[in-house]
Amino acid sequence: MTIAVYLPLVLGLPLWWSAPRLARRGSPALAARALAGMAVVAAVCTTWSLGLLALTLFDDLPPLRTLDNHPTLELPEPVPGPIALVAALLLIGAAIRLVADLHRRLGTVRQLRAVGTPHAGVVIADLDAPMAVAIPGRPGHLLVTTAILRVLDPDEQRVMFAHERAHLRHRHHALVVAAAAAAAVNPLLIPCRETVNYLVERWADEEAAAQVGNRELTARAVARAALATVRPEPLLGIDGGVAVRRVQALADPAPRPRRRRLLGTLILIIAFAATATSATVEFVNLARAWL
């Protein structure tokens, strides 16, 4: 097997570098979708390449091991055993991280859904922790605490509800989970995960600003909620982790879609697909020779 099988493992490096830069300009909606999709493609191709490498371990098992040592057969040599073993271990590690991440996220959603029964799609919880979060499900609903309502004035509350409903309407949790799963499989995609988290917040900010018709009010609501909100891990709500960048973005005019900025993402998708296809053809030819 040639270098093609290894290329998907390193093509994540351009994404590691470029993902944060995609968030700087253009439509956050377009960028979030493109980056989440790119992360999934990268994770699938990475897993596929590791799987192909790990499968070559079978040449050390009987009866293939006997064929390998046959004096008259000249069989193509698969990848070295240590590389195949490392690939298998990486696959196991990726599976463990993926299951752990999904288990933690599902557990968090179950805990939040257990807080109360929604009325008109909203749960108002009498809690001291300032929090506003969109909880996915069928149907999804909003969880808002009385503490965050005390922090925001009525106009700012309109922004908050518009922001959270935008998360539900556009199913932002699906993009977030997809990017998180990709990063669990391939740690080089962690910047993609963080950027998608930021972009869906920016997306919801823009939706809220358009709905209330006031970008300054939206920026003020984001800032005040971020200062008041304290959570060990923000979910799909207004949080303080990237509040400064979000407020600064709201100080500018509404962004326009810039599809040309996603040209690099399209090129990477093609590169991942081409290298994965080439590696698969090589593996099939190798398997035919051995079997």
Q: Any overview of this molecule?
A:
- Helices cover 65% and strands 4% of the residues.
- It is mainly alpha-helical and 291 residues long.
- It contains twelve helices and three strands, in the order αααααβββααααααα.
- Helix 8 packs antiparallel against helix 9.
- Strands 1-3-2 form a three-stranded mixed beta sheet, with helices on both faces.
- It has one domain (3-290).
Please give the count of helices. Answer: 12
- Output mean pLDDT: 84
First-to-last CA distance: 16 Å
Radius of gyration: 24 Å
Question: Approximately what portion of the residues adopt beta-strand conformation?
Answer: under 5%
Counting copies of identical and different chains, the oligomeric state is single chain
Inertia-based shape = elongated
- The percentage helix is 55-70%
Return the structural class. mainly alpha
Number of beta strands: 3
How many domains would you count in the coordinates?
1
Sheet with the most strands, sense and barrel status: 3 strands, mixed
Q: Which spans have pLDDT < 50 for at least 5 consecutive residues?
A: 70-76, 232-240
Task: Summarize the helix and strand pattern as letters.
Answer: HHHHHEEEHHHHHHH
Spatial arrangement of strands, main beta sheet: 1-3-2
Describe, in short, the structure shown.
This protein is 65% helix and 4% strand.
Characteristic terms for this protein:
291 residues; single chain; 3 strands; 3-stranded mixed beta sheet; 65% helix; mainly alpha; 12 helices
